[in-house]
Amino acid sequence: MKYFIRSIGLLAGLAMVFTCFSFTNIQKVSERKWQGIASYYHSKFEGRKTSTGEIFSNRKLTAANNFLKLGTKVRVTNLLNGKSVIVKINDRMNKKNKRLIDLSHEAARRLGFVQQGLGQVEVEILDIQANYLAKR
Fold it and tell me: I need a labelling partner for 80 at 20 to 30 A (CA). Which of 11, 14, 36, 60 fits?
């Protein structure tokens, strides 16, 4: 029985890793929702300025995104466990980054994917504003 439970856990972990790494494109689900891969900031960014001029802290609930306006509040939901957190977009990612969102460590911890490093998430805009996309 002990080996059976370990085998199930291993298979579930492999399925999650396969799902995360095969789900690299950002998919628009509705007018205000997207699904894709989330990662979290490395500790080396602690204390640096973000795109808004704020000082970055991994203890705050903030995030980086490349197409939403800075200052936009979004709900990020982990699609594997249903946990969600509200964060403010206050930074930009590298333009070559294919991920949907880069979260602070605290946000990733609350979503439950710090151990994995990446998580499959849905991002929903909470701000009620007509123009929420950043100018390109």
Answer: 60
Cα(44)–Cα(120) distance, integer angstroms: 24
SS3 of residue 132 by DSSP: coil
Measured between alpha carbons, how far is residue 126 from residues 28, 34, 89 in Å? 16, 13, 11
CATH superfamily assigned to domain 2-125: RlpA-like domain (2.40.40.10)
CA-based nearest residue to 49, from 66, 62, 38? 62
Locus of tokens 């894709």: 36
pLDDT digits (tens, 9 = 90+) for 83-133: 999 999 999 998 888 899 999 999 999 999 999 999 999 999 997 665 666
What is the pLDDT at residue 20? 45
